[in-house]
Amino acid sequence: MDSERQTSANKHPVQQISLQRSGKKLNFERRLRFLFWLFGLPGLVLIWWLLWIHSVDTIETMILLVLYVLAWAFLVSILQEQITRPLQTLTNVVAALREDDYSFRARGARNNDAIGDLAQEINALADMLQIQRAGTLEAIALVERVVDSMQSPVLAFDPEGRLKLMNIAAERIFVMKAREALGHTARELGLERMAAATDDELLTMESGSQSGRWIVKRTGFRLRGVPHTLLVLADVSAALREEERIAWKRLIRVLGHEINNSLTPIKSIAANLRGQLERNSLGELEDFDRGLEVIENRAESLNRFLQAYRRLMGLPAPKLAPVELGELVRRVVKLETRLEVMVRGGKELIIQADADQLQQALINLVRNGVEAALGPEMEHADSAEVIVDWKESRNEVIITIIDNGPGVSNDSNLFVPFYTTKLEGTGIGLVLAQQIAEGHAGQVTLANRDDEESGCIAEIRLPLHPKL
User: Fold this and answer.
1) 61, 187: one domain
2) What residue numbers bound the domain in which 355 lies?
3) How far apart are CA 343 and CA 336, in angstroms?
């Protein structure tokens, strides 16, 4: 749009119209005064001629001529004041308009009068500019309100790469204040990668305690004729995770169908053969017996494995209802028998959630914390510690599970289905907890402790009043 306006301006250059016919540089007041005195010169000559033909005394002639000059000077000053004063008033009104001050108007304007018509036109122009200015300010306020209320980060950079605009979402995502960041370059703010991204480029950036994936929308605009770059970031992490989940769901459906078709007869035949061996007491076939037992156990294990993943992919939408958070946490803690989990919660809260799903998410996170604190084969049972805490922060509740285990070594695969570092793990505990939290418009984060102790902090952030 700006380029079109510039092109139009180049095609139609501004034409300057002269205010006077003469090319002389004499200003308006002097020119007006000169004309008035020139018009008074014939009268002065006429008076002198009349006095001369009537033989009036020279002294009296000089006195009369001086009186005429003084009277004419007084008349010239009055006439010049009557002409220049309205013009000066209109000049002041126009100057105020140029300074965006619309509180001045010209008074006493009359119709069918050159100065009056000019004053009325300037007053009308001032009224129109005031209305346009008010509309512009309202539009700017609306745009600022919309930009600040957007959940997507919005940033603008000038040609030198200095930050000129940052909304509230960008402040939250990049953990910086706009009043401190404005005027700094993208390199100084650590945003050079994002500032150099192309349109529709997918970026992976650290946000908080886990990475997020963002689509960059890039466009340009002009501010006072200077080209700027506008960047809008859209968080596609949840959408991509949902696409991944759907892809895994399709894969598991196919694999489950094919594997179950094989596991079911294998398990049945192995059980029948083992029963026949027990009835016939064939001692020389003990190795065969053990092999069939292994087949049966592995078939059962694979079946449980597939059933667990089917539960993950078939998680229904949450049914929200009032839930007493403290009671729910204490109920979950009692289910863990390997270690006494400490509850160090804040005030009692009632949240809107699906109690069964939230309980399942907490069971998985508490179980992970206990297993990490105890270590393999209960080797740290004496020093193991797991603490469950919760607090209210603005419009959300944060449930924290803290353990003193070894911590997280590879946080990039924490929420990847099937991934696990445990010998007998299925790799669905964290994924299931995350899916439950996202179903409640929340999130799950997992990070190493930031104090002097080793271990991990798992957080579930849930809105107090989710809008699903």
Assistant:
1) no
2) 321-463
3) 12
